[in-house]
Structure formats: C-alpha cells, structure tokens
Amino acid sequence: MILLVRSLRVSVAIVTYRRAWALPYSLTSLVNQTRRPDEVVVVLKPSGDGGEEVISRFSSSLPIKLVIQREGFVVQAYQMAIDNASGDIILFLDDDAVVEEKWIEKYIELFKELPNVAGIGGTIYKAYLNNDVLLKTQEYFISAKSSTKPLRNIFYRKPLPELSDYVHWLSIAGFRGFKQIPEEGVFKSIGLCGANMGLKREAIADCPIAELYRRSRKGYLFEQVLAYCARRKGFDIYEVRGSRAPIVWHIMHEQSLTRGKGFWREFWIHYDRVASYWRLKRLGANVSFTAYFIACIVALRRKTLPQLLATIYAWIVRI
C-alpha cells in the first residue's frame, strides 16, 4: 500500500507513568508543531501524581485520546498505544522528551521519500531542567562514540539473513550487532529508540509485543523486536542522522526504566537480552541455538550475579 503524503494521518503515541512533572514539556512541543498530529494517543498508568490533570489541560489544544492502563508494564502500554492509534504512521515520543517544531513534518517527508519504508529513527539529544527552564544541548542522549566502533566479526554476531545489509542488526544469536554507524545520512538500521521513532501502523499492528514481553519489567530492546516484525513483512527500517533527522531532546533525570543502577535493574535488562533469542524464534527468525548459547556464555564474562541469575531465569522460562 503506497501512502500519499497529503493523505497521511499521523498518530503520536506517548506512554506515561509518574511523569506529571515532565509531560507538560512534551505536550507543549506537540502544540508548537508546524504540522499538527491528527491524534495524540496517551496511555496513562495512574500513579496519583496528577497526570490526568496535566492531560486534561491540553485537551483543548491537542486531539488527545486518553487510554488508561490498569495492569501490565511498559511494553503492554506500547501495545495499547498501537492498538488505539488510527494513523497511517505512529510517531513514538517519551513522556519526558520534547520535539523540534518540524518533527512531524520531517517524518512525513522521510516516509514519502524512503523506499519500502516501514520504520524510521531520528536523533536524540540531552536536555536539562534548570529552575523549570529547559536547556537543550547537542549532546547525544545515547553516546555516539559508543556506537561508532564496530564490533569484532565473530560468527555468533552474524546478522539474521534479512538484516544482512543493515548497519545495526539483530544477530543469529538474538543479540544486537553493528558496523561503524555513520554520523550523517540515511542508512538501514534496526536500532530504533522509543523516545523518537516512527512506524507504519500496517507493518506492526499484528506484532504481538505484549505477549513476547509478558514477563519483562523493563521492555529492553522491544523497539528492535517491533522493527523486526515490520522487516519480516518485507519492509525496511532506517535511521537518519544530520540535518534531515527528526530531533528530540530527552530531559535528563534519575527516574528511568533502562538507565540507573541496582541489582534488579541489571537483572531485568539482562533477562531481556537473553530472552531476545526466544522472541525472535517465536517470530520465525532463523536463529542459531549454538550461536545463542556461546553468546550467553560470553556475555557472562563480567561474572555479575544479576546477569548470571537472569540468564538462568531466561533459560528456564524463556518468554
């Protein structure tokens, strides 16, 4: 199905929990778009912090569709957002992030121009709050330095066949891999981030991410699994860097699902890494158990107790 830009409906999806302090910044940035969204699907898990009141204040300036999450964790919230979106494309934004004024406009242009596209990832910078004033920087939210050095070419890092021409891929072991990632341009990549990504709804509507992540607490790498669902249908996924990239600023703070420290944080993040093999296998990927087993053993070289226990747990329960 070829979508004409003039007829594209755009849904913005935000999942939120205990972020009433940050949500006004995100919603205000959507109000200021050069091209307004057709709907803003907000999935709220009530926490008593006043999130409902914040959303209500913006209901007259944005076409908000509020969905209440009564149970489950973050990936179940994203599943609810996808299920309730009606747009041709869904643009995902964190509840503690703000977008540039041409964010939606840039995504629409890219979805029009890129061949066979189903998913696009933009650029994320850091922002800081200083006495309620938002300070935007040009610092990458996820360090560009850490992703520009390619991984060693080892057999268990070999990309899945359908990702062989991708800069950032999922391997036959279910783990991530990447070549040298360009600092400018458009390139095929599975490395999307939920803070700033766009996906064609028809390509992901039937992807069972809530089921695949039913035991997960952090939802680590769910974006790559979602993108892989689209790739399995024959679509391509891209990342964009440089002047054409849709830009988001992520507000830096201590509350985060995947950042921070602690035993359980490390346990659940590593569980999601190890369980990725079983999720991809469920989706029909040509994964290798031998490669997976070796990759799991190599990943334990740090010999941390949380990682060891998470590996054992993932081997027992899978997904």
Automatic annotation (TrEMBL):
Q: Which UniProt keywords apply?
A: Transferase
> Which GO-annotated molecular functions does the record name?
transferase activity
Gene3D superfamilies, per the entry = Spore Coat Polysaccharide Biosynthesis Protein SpsA, Chain A
Glycosyltransferase 2-like domain: residues covered: 11-148
Q: Does the keyword Transferase apply?
A: yes
Q: Which PANTHER family match?
A: GLYCOSYLTRANSFERASE (PTHR22916)
Name of the protein in question: Glycosyltransferase
Q: Which organism is it from?
A: Ignisphaera aggregans
